Amino acid sequence: MSVQIGIIGGSGLYDMAELSDREEVRLSTPFGEPSGPYVVGMLKGRRVAFLARHGAGHRIPPSELNFRANIFGFKLLGVERILSASAVGSLREEYPPLDVVVPDQFFDRTKGRVSTFFAGRGMAVHVSFAHPVCPELSRIAFESAQAAGARAHLGGTYVCIEGPQFSTVAESRLYRDWGMDVIGMTNLQEAKLAREAEICYTTIALVTDYDCWHPDHDSVTVDMIVANLTQNAEVAQHLIAEAVGRVPAARGCGCGSALAGAIITHPSAISAETKRDLAPIIGTYVG
Protein backbone atom coordinates (compact mmCIF):
# COMPACT_ATOMS: atom_id res chain seq x y z
CA MET A 1 0.00 0.00 0.00
CA SER A 2 1.39 3.39 -0.97
CA VAL A 3 1.71 6.24 1.47
CA GLN A 4 -1.41 8.37 1.17
CA ILE A 5 -1.14 11.11 3.77
CA GLY A 6 1.78 13.12 5.12
CA ILE A 7 1.90 14.59 8.62
CA ILE A 8 4.32 17.33 9.66
CA GLY A 9 4.76 17.67 13.40
CA GLY A 10 5.78 21.07 14.71
CA SER A 11 6.93 22.29 18.12
CA GLY A 12 5.82 19.78 20.75
CA LEU A 13 4.58 17.18 18.27
CA TYR A 14 7.53 14.91 17.58
CA ASP A 15 5.70 11.60 17.11
CA MET A 16 2.28 10.10 16.45
CA ALA A 17 1.53 7.71 19.31
CA GLU A 18 -1.21 5.82 17.46
CA LEU A 19 0.99 5.01 14.46
CA SER A 20 1.35 1.23 14.12
CA ASP A 21 3.47 -1.07 11.93
CA ARG A 22 5.99 1.75 11.79
CA GLU A 23 9.27 1.88 9.94
CA GLU A 24 11.78 4.64 9.42
CA VAL A 25 12.44 5.70 5.83
CA ARG A 26 15.50 7.84 5.11
CA LEU A 27 15.48 9.72 1.83
CA SER A 28 17.92 11.83 -0.16
CA THR A 29 16.57 14.51 -2.47
CA PRO A 30 18.04 16.83 -5.13
CA PHE A 31 17.76 19.51 -2.44
CA GLY A 32 19.65 17.71 0.30
CA GLU A 33 18.49 15.89 3.40
CA PRO A 34 15.07 16.30 5.03
CA SER A 35 14.77 17.17 8.72
CA GLY A 36 15.02 13.48 9.60
CA PRO A 37 13.62 10.08 8.72
CA TYR A 38 10.00 9.74 7.72
CA VAL A 39 8.15 7.42 10.08
CA VAL A 40 5.82 5.39 7.87
CA GLY A 41 3.02 3.33 9.37
CA MET A 42 -0.71 2.77 9.69
CA LEU A 43 -3.14 5.23 11.24
CA LYS A 44 -6.91 4.80 11.11
CA GLY A 45 -6.52 2.22 8.36
CA ARG A 46 -4.47 4.56 6.17
CA ARG A 47 -0.78 4.42 5.35
CA VAL A 48 0.80 7.69 6.47
CA ALA A 49 4.24 9.26 6.77
CA PHE A 50 5.17 11.43 9.75
CA LEU A 51 8.04 13.94 9.76
CA ALA A 52 9.21 15.97 12.76
CA ARG A 53 9.74 19.39 11.18
CA HIS A 54 12.55 20.47 13.49
CA GLY A 55 14.29 17.09 13.66
CA ALA A 56 15.11 14.89 16.63
CA GLY A 57 15.56 16.96 19.76
CA HIS A 58 14.18 20.07 18.01
CA ARG A 59 17.61 21.01 16.70
CA ILE A 60 16.71 22.87 13.48
CA PRO A 61 15.52 26.49 13.84
CA PRO A 62 12.93 27.87 11.39
CA SER A 63 15.35 29.74 9.13
CA GLU A 64 17.53 26.65 8.70
CA LEU A 65 14.78 24.22 7.76
CA ASN A 66 15.25 22.50 4.42
CA PHE A 67 11.65 23.02 3.33
CA ARG A 68 12.32 21.81 -0.22
CA ALA A 69 13.81 18.51 0.91
CA ASN A 70 10.99 17.93 3.39
CA ILE A 71 8.20 18.40 0.85
CA PHE A 72 10.07 16.66 -1.98
CA GLY A 73 10.53 13.65 0.31
CA PHE A 74 6.79 13.41 0.81
CA LYS A 75 6.37 13.55 -2.98
CA LEU A 76 8.84 10.67 -3.39
CA LEU A 77 6.74 8.63 -0.95
CA GLY A 78 3.63 9.21 -3.07
CA VAL A 79 1.90 11.51 -0.59
CA GLU A 80 -1.03 13.51 -2.01
CA ARG A 81 -2.16 15.29 1.18
CA ILE A 82 -0.24 16.93 4.02
CA LEU A 83 -1.61 17.84 7.44
CA SER A 84 0.85 20.28 9.00
CA ALA A 85 0.70 21.07 12.72
CA SER A 86 2.36 24.24 13.97
CA ALA A 87 2.60 26.22 17.21
CA VAL A 88 1.48 29.83 16.71
CA GLY A 89 0.88 33.02 18.61
CA SER A 90 -2.56 34.58 18.60
CA LEU A 91 -3.16 38.10 17.32
CA ARG A 92 -6.81 38.10 18.32
CA GLU A 93 -8.37 38.29 21.78
CA GLU A 94 -10.95 35.67 20.84
CA TYR A 95 -8.26 33.08 19.95
CA PRO A 96 -6.77 32.28 23.37
CA PRO A 97 -4.02 29.74 24.03
CA LEU A 98 -5.06 26.11 23.39
CA ASP A 99 -7.46 27.11 20.60
CA VAL A 100 -6.96 25.60 17.12
CA VAL A 101 -7.01 27.75 13.99
CA VAL A 102 -7.15 26.39 10.43
CA PRO A 103 -6.09 29.45 8.41
CA ASP A 104 -6.97 29.94 4.78
CA GLN A 105 -4.47 32.74 3.99
CA PHE A 106 -0.79 33.57 4.53
CA PHE A 107 1.17 36.80 4.68
CA ASP A 108 4.93 36.63 4.07
CA ARG A 109 7.32 38.49 6.37
CA THR A 110 10.29 36.18 5.83
CA LYS A 111 13.56 37.34 4.33
CA GLY A 112 15.18 35.46 1.49
CA ARG A 113 13.98 31.91 2.11
CA VAL A 114 13.92 29.70 -0.97
CA SER A 115 10.32 28.59 -1.41
CA THR A 116 10.28 27.11 -4.92
CA PHE A 117 11.65 23.92 -6.41
CA PHE A 118 12.56 25.73 -9.63
CA ALA A 119 15.12 28.31 -8.45
CA GLY A 120 18.39 27.81 -10.32
CA ARG A 121 16.87 25.07 -12.47
CA GLY A 122 16.43 27.05 -15.69
CA MET A 123 12.65 27.01 -15.42
CA ALA A 124 10.00 29.70 -15.12
CA VAL A 125 7.00 28.28 -13.26
CA HIS A 126 4.16 30.34 -11.79
CA VAL A 127 1.53 28.40 -9.85
CA SER A 128 -1.69 29.96 -8.63
CA PHE A 129 -1.45 30.80 -4.93
CA ALA A 130 -4.45 33.06 -4.37
CA HIS A 131 -5.95 30.37 -2.19
CA PRO A 132 -2.86 28.81 -0.56
CA VAL A 133 -4.39 25.86 1.29
CA CYS A 134 -6.59 23.01 0.15
CA PRO A 135 -10.23 23.87 0.99
CA GLU A 136 -11.26 20.22 1.18
CA LEU A 137 -8.46 19.23 3.55
CA SER A 138 -8.90 22.38 5.64
CA ARG A 139 -12.57 21.65 6.18
CA ILE A 140 -11.68 18.12 7.28
CA ALA A 141 -9.05 19.47 9.71
CA PHE A 142 -11.53 21.96 11.19
CA GLU A 143 -14.29 19.38 11.65
CA SER A 144 -11.77 16.93 13.11
CA ALA A 145 -10.62 19.54 15.63
CA GLN A 146 -14.18 20.00 16.76
CA ALA A 147 -14.68 16.23 16.97
CA ALA A 148 -11.52 16.00 19.09
CA GLY A 149 -13.00 18.44 21.58
CA ALA A 150 -10.93 21.49 20.64
CA ARG A 151 -12.27 24.99 20.27
CA ALA A 152 -11.58 25.52 16.59
CA HIS A 153 -11.78 28.34 14.04
CA LEU A 154 -11.92 27.91 10.27
CA GLY A 155 -10.26 30.64 8.22
CA GLY A 156 -7.96 33.54 9.00
CA THR A 157 -4.51 34.77 8.05
CA TYR A 158 -1.21 33.30 9.26
CA VAL A 159 1.60 35.86 9.14
CA CYS A 160 4.92 34.06 8.69
CA ILE A 161 7.93 35.85 10.18
CA GLU A 162 11.60 35.02 9.86
CA GLY A 163 12.46 34.54 13.51
CA PRO A 164 14.04 33.04 15.46
CA GLN A 165 13.29 36.05 17.66
CA PHE A 166 9.70 36.74 18.59
CA SER A 167 8.05 39.99 17.46
CA THR A 168 8.54 43.43 18.93
CA VAL A 169 5.44 45.04 20.42
CA ALA A 170 5.37 47.49 17.48
CA GLU A 171 5.39 44.63 14.97
CA SER A 172 2.76 42.67 16.86
CA ARG A 173 0.44 45.68 17.00
CA LEU A 174 0.98 46.36 13.30
CA TYR A 175 0.07 42.79 12.35
CA ARG A 176 -3.15 43.18 14.31
CA ASP A 177 -3.90 46.46 12.53
CA TRP A 178 -3.33 44.68 9.22
CA GLY A 179 -5.95 42.07 10.14
CA MET A 180 -3.62 39.13 10.72
CA ASP A 181 -4.94 36.37 12.99
CA VAL A 182 -2.05 34.12 14.02
CA ILE A 183 1.73 34.37 13.79
CA GLY A 184 4.32 31.68 13.17
CA MET A 185 7.68 31.00 11.52
CA THR A 186 7.33 27.92 9.31
CA ASN A 187 4.20 27.15 7.35
CA LEU A 188 4.22 29.52 4.40
CA GLN A 189 7.17 27.88 2.62
CA GLU A 190 5.61 24.45 3.13
CA ALA A 191 2.36 25.64 1.57
CA LYS A 192 4.11 27.12 -1.47
CA LEU A 193 6.18 24.01 -2.09
CA ALA A 194 3.25 21.67 -1.56
CA ARG A 195 1.32 23.60 -4.20
CA GLU A 196 4.21 23.26 -6.68
CA ALA A 197 4.36 19.54 -5.88
CA GLU A 198 0.59 19.25 -6.45
CA ILE A 199 0.06 18.07 -2.88
CA CYS A 200 -2.99 19.17 -0.88
CA TYR A 201 -1.86 21.11 2.19
CA THR A 202 -3.46 22.56 5.29
CA THR A 203 -2.15 24.15 8.48
CA ILE A 204 -3.36 23.12 11.91
CA ALA A 205 -2.31 26.15 13.95
CA LEU A 206 -2.12 25.39 17.68
CA VAL A 207 -2.24 28.57 19.74
CA THR A 208 0.34 28.70 22.54
CA ASP A 209 0.38 32.41 23.47
CA TYR A 210 -0.95 35.89 22.73
CA ASP A 211 2.28 37.10 21.13
CA CYS A 212 3.31 40.36 22.85
CA TRP A 213 0.52 42.77 21.86
CA HIS A 214 -1.77 41.67 24.71
CA PRO A 215 -1.60 43.95 27.79
CA ASP A 216 -1.59 40.92 30.09
CA HIS A 217 1.07 39.10 28.04
CA ASP A 218 3.62 41.77 27.18
CA SER A 219 6.37 39.30 26.34
CA VAL A 220 6.58 35.80 24.89
CA THR A 221 8.87 33.30 26.58
CA VAL A 222 9.84 29.74 25.85
CA ASP A 223 8.58 28.72 29.31
CA MET A 224 5.16 30.15 28.49
CA ILE A 225 5.00 28.33 25.18
CA VAL A 226 6.27 24.99 26.50
CA ALA A 227 3.62 25.06 29.21
CA ASN A 228 0.94 24.95 26.50
CA LEU A 229 2.77 22.73 24.02
CA THR A 230 2.12 19.55 25.99
CA GLN A 231 -1.63 20.12 26.00
CA ASN A 232 -1.59 21.21 22.37
CA ALA A 233 0.36 18.12 21.32
CA GLU A 234 -2.21 15.86 22.95
CA VAL A 235 -5.02 17.65 21.13
CA ALA A 236 -3.05 17.50 17.87
CA GLN A 237 -2.61 13.72 18.19
CA HIS A 238 -6.37 13.18 18.44
CA LEU A 239 -7.19 15.82 15.84
CA ILE A 240 -4.82 14.44 13.20
CA ALA A 241 -5.90 10.85 13.77
CA GLU A 242 -9.51 11.94 13.37
CA ALA A 243 -8.67 13.84 10.18
CA VAL A 244 -6.79 10.91 8.67
CA GLY A 245 -9.87 8.74 9.18
CA ARG A 246 -12.09 11.32 7.48
CA VAL A 247 -9.95 11.94 4.36
CA PRO A 248 -11.74 10.52 1.29
CA ALA A 249 -9.90 8.17 -1.05
CA ALA A 250 -10.21 10.51 -4.04
CA ARG A 251 -9.37 14.19 -4.03
CA GLY A 252 -12.20 16.61 -4.80
CA CYS A 253 -10.06 19.72 -5.22
CA GLY A 254 -7.77 21.21 -7.86
CA CYS A 255 -4.48 20.84 -5.99
CA GLY A 256 -3.50 17.79 -8.04
CA SER A 257 -3.26 19.81 -11.25
CA ALA A 258 -1.59 22.97 -9.92
CA LEU A 259 1.22 22.80 -12.49
CA ALA A 260 -1.10 22.51 -15.49
CA GLY A 261 -0.50 25.69 -17.44
CA ALA A 262 1.97 27.01 -14.86
CA ILE A 263 5.18 25.93 -16.63
CA ILE A 264 6.15 28.68 -19.06
CA THR A 265 9.53 27.29 -20.15
CA HIS A 266 9.36 25.16 -23.30
CA PRO A 267 10.22 21.51 -22.59
CA SER A 268 13.05 21.64 -25.15
CA ALA A 269 14.71 24.40 -23.11
CA ILE A 270 14.70 22.40 -19.87
CA SER A 271 17.94 20.56 -19.20
CA ALA A 272 18.09 16.79 -18.98
CA GLU A 273 19.42 17.13 -15.43
CA THR A 274 16.45 19.22 -14.33
CA LYS A 275 14.01 16.84 -16.01
CA ARG A 276 15.64 13.94 -14.17
CA ASP A 277 15.90 15.61 -10.77
CA LEU A 278 12.40 17.06 -10.79
CA ALA A 279 10.68 14.15 -12.54
CA PRO A 280 8.45 13.36 -9.52
CA ILE A 281 7.01 16.87 -9.85
CA ILE A 282 7.19 17.83 -13.54
CA GLY A 283 7.33 14.43 -15.27
CA THR A 284 3.65 14.52 -16.21
CA TYR A 285 4.11 17.79 -18.06
CA VAL A 286 7.57 17.74 -19.63
CA GLY A 287 8.25 14.04 -20.17
Commentary on this structure:
- This protein has helices at 67-77, 135-147, 169-177, 187-196, 222-246, 272-277, 279-286; strands at residues 5-9, 20-25, 38-43, 46-52, 81-90, 100-102, 105-109, 152-154, 157-161, 182-184, 200-209.
- The protein is α/β, with parallel strands linked by helices and 287 residues long.
- The protein has 7 helices and 11 strands.
- Helix content is 29%, strand content 22%.
- Strands 1, 2, 3, 4, 5, 6, 7, 8, 9, 10 and 11 form an 11-stranded mixed sheet that branches.
Q: Specify the structural class.
A: alpha/beta
How would a crystallographer describe the biggest sheet? 11 strands, mixed
Per DSSP, what share of the residues sits in E-state strands of 2 or more residues? 15-25%
Helices, by number, come to: 7
Number of strands: 11
Average pLDDT confidence is: 94
Low-confidence region ranges: none
Spatial shape: globular
Radius of gyration based on Cα positions: 18 Å
Helix content: 25-40%
Q: Give, in order, the helices and strands.
A: EEEEHEEEHEEHEHEHHH
Our measurement of the CA-to-CA distance between the termini, rounded to an integer number of angstroms, reads 26 Å
Task: Give the SSE layout.
Elements: E1 5-9, E2 20-25, E3 38-43, E4 46-52, H1 67-77, E5 81-90, E6 100-102, E7 105-109, H2 135-147, E8 152-154, E9 157-161, H3 169-177, E10 182-184, H4 187-196, E11 200-209, H5 222-246, H6 272-277, H7 279-286
Descriptive tags:
287 residues; alpha/beta; eleven-stranded mixed beta sheet; globular
